[in-house]
Design brief:
The protein is α/β, with parallel strands linked by helices. About 40% of the residues lie in helices and about 20% in strands. It contains 15 helices and 23 strands. It has helices at about 1-25, 65-85, 90-105, 105-120, 120-145, 180-195, 210-220, 235-245, 255-265, 290-305, 320-335, 355-370, 430-435, 450-460, 495-500; strands spanning about 30, 35, 40, 45-50, 60-65, 150-155, 160-170, 170-175, 200, 230, 250-255, 275, 280-285, 315-320, 375-380, 400-405, 420-425, 440, 445-450, 465-470, 485, 490, 500-510. The strands form six sheets. The protein has a seven-stranded mixed β-sheet, sandwiched between helices. Strand 2 (about 35) and strand 3 form a beta hairpin. The relative contact order is 0.13.
């Protein structure tokens, strides 16, 4: 009887999974703004269409919000701040853990929505995006329970006690990107509310569905109305209104360097606090003593994970010359094993790019690589892309490896943000470091060597915010994350996020 019961439970799970897939495929979702705990239409009554990148079909209608919607959200966020900022860490933690549990209970539906909305394989959303969103809530929900304030005593004639109060700043403006929609939205919302702020968040207009679903969980939890408000729309209207709003004292933004520069200029007259996680043109430096098996497998993943649409992806690979030829041969062979296709297919390991416009941009760099006398080792123009009939109108690009370019080529200087990586030989340590640092970005790098002394020496000389040695994307959320140069301003972590979302106030009591 136990075996039969388990069999029917498995059948039920499979049927539920199929129903979710069918609903995601067939339904056109009509998204609403979430303001003061209520779902409301945009004041403009206008909506934009959001497409499924893997089919090109309309997936959702997204509010085309304006300054009026942002003003409404800010008004209620300011009102909610008065009470929320005075709640205990224990209560805030309790609410955030409730939300984490709701996300976990609906993880499969969220993974399906994320895949349909963004183009990534369902398997990736299921394995990475949704679990990380859950962890973001739980991480900040628990870390706020262990804060310790600083206290000092002055002796002698000036006998006094000094202590530091950490005060929430106010209404946080949060603008998140389309590549890791729920993952990065929660990475902003969680510390904002954990440290006592309220927020007005704008997800990307291209990937709004999981944010909209999150709002439903917020509404069902004990989170007071107005603490988290979601305004959907274009960056030029809704995003601009958030950045320029005089009652939003801090902005957290993840996206392109160009937009980050614009945000800096617009917010400067208000002296707003800024956290800007911007572009990357990340290098891998592979020395001849690397653990080549681990290096190859990890570098394939770091180059093409999420279709290469991750700011941390490796797009410049520098290989010591005496192993260069063998590395390229084996690397290309492994890249050709990547299965590009329907994100719902369990065998698929790479899905579609976010839009036709973005596909055109990526393809333009592949064309540029040819014009710069580069050799396309595999991918676009070399290999054949086989897609099922329903994906023929999707925005797919084969994973592409380019050799033969110099470091001056725009293909090695510009952020392509797609499944294109360039491999270049180097002769010695100094040249490898120079090549890696020859970019205006400085987000992260990977370093491959079994020489511990060299690992530390080279890591210190790389002008990036994070160096992964013999690994990639191993994240401890207690460690600061952010970029140097044009890769951004500020850091994010348990401590760094606390510093950003609070203001320190010194209180001196003479006795």
């Amino acid at each position: 009887m136990i075996i039969i019961s388990r069999y029917f439970q498995q059948i039920s799970t499979v049927l539920k999974y199929i129903l979710i897939m069918d609903n995601v495929k067939a339904e056109v979702h009509v998204v609403q703004n979430f303001i003061n705990g209520t779902f409301v239409a945009p004041t403009s009554k206008e909506y934009m269409e959001s497409v499924n990148p893997s089919t090109g079909g309309v997936l959702a209608k997204i509010p085309s919000s304006t300054k009026d919607d942002v003003d409404q959200a800010v008004k209620f966020a300011r009102k909610a701040f008065t009470e929320w900022s005075e709640t205990s860490p224990q209560f805030r933690s309790k609410v955030m853990l409730q939300i984490a549990d709701m996300i976990e209970a609906n993880a499969e539906e969220l993974a399906q929505l994320e895949s349909a909305d963004q183009g990534k394989p369902v398997s990736l959303a299921r394995r990475v995006d949704i679990p990380r969103a859950i962890y973001n809530f739980r991480f900040f929900a628990t870390c706020i329970l262990h804060e310790v304030d600083n206290v000092t005593q002055l002796q002698g004639p000036s006998r006094a006690m000094n202590y530091v109060e950490r005060m929430p700043v106010g209404v946080a403006g949060l603008i998140s990107p389309w590549n890791l929609p729920l993952y990065l939205l929660t990475w902003k919302i969680c510390p904002a509310i954990a440290f006592g702020n309220t927020c007005v968040a704008k997800p990307s207009e291209m990937t709004s569905l999981t944010a909209w679903k999150l709002a439903q969980f917020l509404q069902q939890s004990e989170l007071p109305p107005g603490v988290v408000n979601l305004v959907f729309g274009f960056g030029a209207s809704a995003g601009e209104a958030i950045v320029a709003h005089p009652d939003i004292p801090l902005i957290s933004f993840t996206g392109s360097t160009a937009i980050g520069q614009h945000i800096s200029a617009v917010s400067a007259p208000f002296c707003k606090k800024l956290s800007l996680e911007l572009g990357g043109k990340n290098a891998a430096i592979i020395f001849d003593d690397a653990d080549i098996e681990n290096c190859l497998a990890t570098t394939v993943r770091s180059s093409f994970a999420n279709q290469g649409e991750v700011c941390l992806c490796t797009s410049r690979i520098f290989v010591q010359r005496n192993i260069y030829s063998s590395f390229v041969e084996r690397f290309v062979r492994m890249v050709r094993e990547i299965k590009v296709g329907d994100p719902k297919d369990p065998k698929t390991t790479m899905g579609a790019l976010i839009s036709q416009q973005h596909k055109d941009k990526v393809m333009s760099y592949i064309k540029l690589a040819r014009e710069d006398d580069g050799k396309i080792e595999c991918g676009e123009g070399v290999d054949k892309l086989n897609l099922p009939a329903h994906c023929q109108n999707g925005f797919f690009v084969l994973p592409t490896v380019v050799t033969g370019l110099t470091t001056e080529s725009r293909c090695l200087q510009d952020e392509i943000f797609g499944p294109v990586t360039c491999v270049v030989p180097f002769d010695n340590e100094a040249e490898g470091i120079a090549f890696a640092n020859d970019a205006r970005y400085g987000l992260c790098a990977t370093l491959w060597t079994q020489d511990v002394t060299r690992a530390h020496r080279v890591a210190r000389k790389l002008k990036v915010g994070t160096v992964w040695i013999n690994c990639w994307l191993v994240r401890d959320l207690h460690m600061p994350f952010g970029g140097m140069k044009m890769s951004g301003v500020g850091r994010e972590s348990a401590e760094d996020s606390r510093d950003f979302f609070t203001e320190k106030k010194t209180v001196c009591l003479k006795y």
